[in-house]
Write a structure and sequence with these properties.
With 218 residues, this protein is an alpha+beta fold. The protein is 60% helix and 18% strand. It contains seven helices and five strands. The protein has a five-stranded mixed sheet. Strand 1, helix 5 and strand 2 form a beta-alpha-beta unit. Helix 1 runs antiparallel to helix 2, helix 2 runs antiparallel to helix 4 and helix 4 packs parallel to helix 5. The two termini are 29 Å apart.
C-alpha cells in the first residue's frame, strides 16, 4: 500500500509544528529533566537517612518511579526533536532513539546499515526520522511483539529504510478506515514533502513492514 496524500491541511500541520516541537523538546531536556534528576538525587539522599524499614522502602519505590519518569521524559524529548540528527546523522539518531525506545517499552530494536551513509538535508533527515519514529510507536501500540528491525540501505542516489516487525499484523483496508489512518497518512505525507515515497504492507499473524525510499541529492 503506497502512502501518499494530497491533503494540503496535513502538509500545513506538518510544516507548522516542527519549530514549536523543537522548543518544547529543549524545555524538556534542559529544564524539566534536570529538575527531575535533582529530585531523584534528593530522594536517594533522604532514603539513606531513614531508619524505619517501611519508610525506607517507600522512599526507594518513589526513587524508582522517578528514575522511570526520567527515562520517559528523555524519550519524549528525543521523540519531539532528536539533537543527534544534525550532529551525528540519521543512522546514529535512529540508533540512539531505538535504545531509549527499548529501555522504555522493552521491545528490542535491531538497527542495521549497509553502504556508506550520505549527507541528507535537515528536512530530509527529519522526515525520515519521523517515519521511523511513527512506525516504532505503532509497533509498541499494536504489534504485540518484543522485537523489530530497522534496516538502512544506502545507495549512490537513494536510501531505503525498512522498519519491520513479526507481530500480529493487520488488515490494511480496515486500518485505513479507523483512527490509525491519520498516523499512516502522515508518514506518507512527510515523505512526499521531501520527494520520497513510503509504502506499508501487513499480513495478519505475520507482521508489518514500513518501507521508505528517499532520493539523495548529488
Amino acid at each position: 500500500m503506497e502512502l501518499e496524500s494530497g491533503n494540503q491541511a496535513c502538509s500545513y500541520i506538518i510544516q507548522s509544528q516542527e519549530e514549536e516541537i523543537k522548543r518544547a523538546a529543549l524545555e524538556l531536556h534542559e529544564s524539566i529533566n534536570q529538575n527531575l534528576y535533582t529530585l531523584q538525587t534528593g530522594l536517594n539522599f533522604i532514603e539513606s537517612g531513614i531508619e524505619q524499614p517501611e519508610l525506607r522502602n517507600y522512599a526507594k519505590e518513589m526513587s524508582g518511579l522517578m528514575e522511570r519518569t526520567i527515562r520517559e521524559v528523555r524519550l519524549l524529548s528525543v521523540e519531539l526533536y532528536p539533537n543527534t540528527l544534525s550532529t551525528l546523522g540519521l543512522t546514529a539518531a535512529v540508533k540512539s532513539y531505538a535504545k531509549l525506545f527499548t529501555n522504555t517499552f522493552g521491545i528490542l530494536i535491531d538497527v542495521e546499515s549497509q553502504g556508506g551513509e550520505k549527507l541528507l538535508s535537515d528536512p530530509e533527515s527529519l522526515a525520515a526520522f519521523r517515519v521511523c519514529q511513527e512506525a516504532l510507536i505503532n509497533i509498541a501500540k499494536y504489534a504485540d511483539t518484543d522485537k523489530a528491525k530497522i534496516a538502512f540501505t544506502w545507495g549512490e542516489f537513494s536510501v531505503k529504510i525498512e522498519i519491520k516487525d513479526t507481530g500480529k499484523g493487520f488488515d490494511t483496508n480496515e486500518v485505513m478506515e479507523s483512527g490509525r489512518s491519520m498516523g499512516i497518512a502522515a508518514m506518507g505525507e512527510r515523505m512526499r514533502l521531501v520527494g520520497g515515497q513510503c509504502n506499508l504492507s501487513s499480513e495478519l499473524d505475520k507482521g508489518t513492514t514500513v518501507s521508505i525510499v528517499l532520493p539523495i541529492q548529488s
